[in-house]
Design brief:
single chain; alpha+beta
Length: 307
């Protein structure tokens, strides 16, 4: 039986509130006297229909919340967060002060050396001036031979000559007789080795030319050495000649591969480059020669250089 069925005998559960009795079933309390009421029109009979079933709500009961004063902030007792770690130092800043001073001094010395070298090189290639006249020897000692500058290619009047270096030798045979060979054009041999070679060696391109330029720069027009570097240039050029002759097949064939080089003589052949066909310039193409005296070859250089 439904707990909400009408009737006086209906049983109600303990958790369900008791429904009020309909107005017709209420009993007025007995009073001392009944009041006469004029009868009015009869009230219509109203039959109450079945009441809708109640659905239990799953939402929690709402409570009336009255906003009160906001609570005061309470200071946190937790320790403060640490500061973010600093970025690690790099470079010189990572060194100790003592090493920083050492690095600074080293950089200062290098900077001074670079400035001095640039200044010396500038004075070497610059036109003659008061400084080079007073200190030209110091400038040359700094530049030669490691830092020598050659500006012929970029000079206002570039070199317009073909210079070839030639050599001949006095060779002592097994019979003790000395035989003089013909002239060998070593520059022409280097030219043939370079022609068509995509990767020619530095020796083929520059060794002979630089040796001759070194000799000319340290000797006067009479082939006499000027200063100590003159003797050095003679020794350098002579050793190159002996090495080239010792490896030359023509010399070996002429001496039967058994001769010993006793002396050498060097000369240069210089000829002007002919002008192009469209030029009106007239130059002589007759070659000129500069022939050096015979140089005796020391015994330790007689067979292919120093041993």
């Amino acid at each position: 039986m439904d707990a909400y069925d009408e009737g006086s005998n209906a049983r109600h559960g303990p958790d369900v509130p008791r429904r009020p009795a309909p107005p017709a079933q209420r009993v007025a309390p007995a009073g001392p006297a009944e009041t006469d009421v004029a009868p009015g029109p009869p009230e219509p009979d109203v039959h109450p229909g079945p009441e809708p079933e109640r659905v239990a709500s799953l939402a929690p009961p709402q409570r009336d919340v009255h906003p009160g004063p906001e609570p005061e902030p309470v200071a946190s007792l937790a320790p403060p967060e640490p500061y973010p770690p600093a970025e690690p130092r790099t470079g010189i800043a990572a060194l100790s002060p003592r090493y920083q001073v050492g690095v600074a001094l080293a950089l200062a010395v290098v900077a001074i050396g670079v400035c001095v070298h640039i200044g010396m090189t500038f004075l070497h290639v610059a036109p003659a001036n008061t400084v080079t006249r007073a200190h030209g020897e110091a400038v040359d000692d700094w530049v030669y031979p490691e830092f020598e500058q050659n500006w012929k290619l970029f000079a206002p009047n570039p070199l317009q000559q073909n210079i070839s270096i030639q050599v001949r030798a006095g060779v002592r045979g097994p019979d003790g007789m000395t035989q003089t060979t013909g002239w060998y054009d070593l520059s022409a041999e280097d030219g043939r080795a370079i022609d068509g070679n995509l990767l020619p060696s530095h020796t083929q391109q520059n060794e002979l030319r630089r040796a001759w330029d070194f000799f000319v720069a340290t000797h006067d027009s009479e082939n006499r050495p000027v200063g100590l570097r003159g003797s050095l240039s003679e020794s350098y050029l002579r050793r190159i000649m002996v090495l080239r002759l010792d490896h030359d097949d023509a010399v070996r064939a002429a001496t039967g591969s058994s001769g010993v080089i006793e002396r050498v003589q060097v000369r240069s052949r210089t000829s002007n480059v002919p002008p192009p066909d469209w030029s009106r310039e007239k130059v002589s193409t007759t070659p000129s020669y500069r022939e050096l005296p015979w140089w005796r070859v020391p015994q330790d250089e007689a067979r292919g250089g120093v041993r």
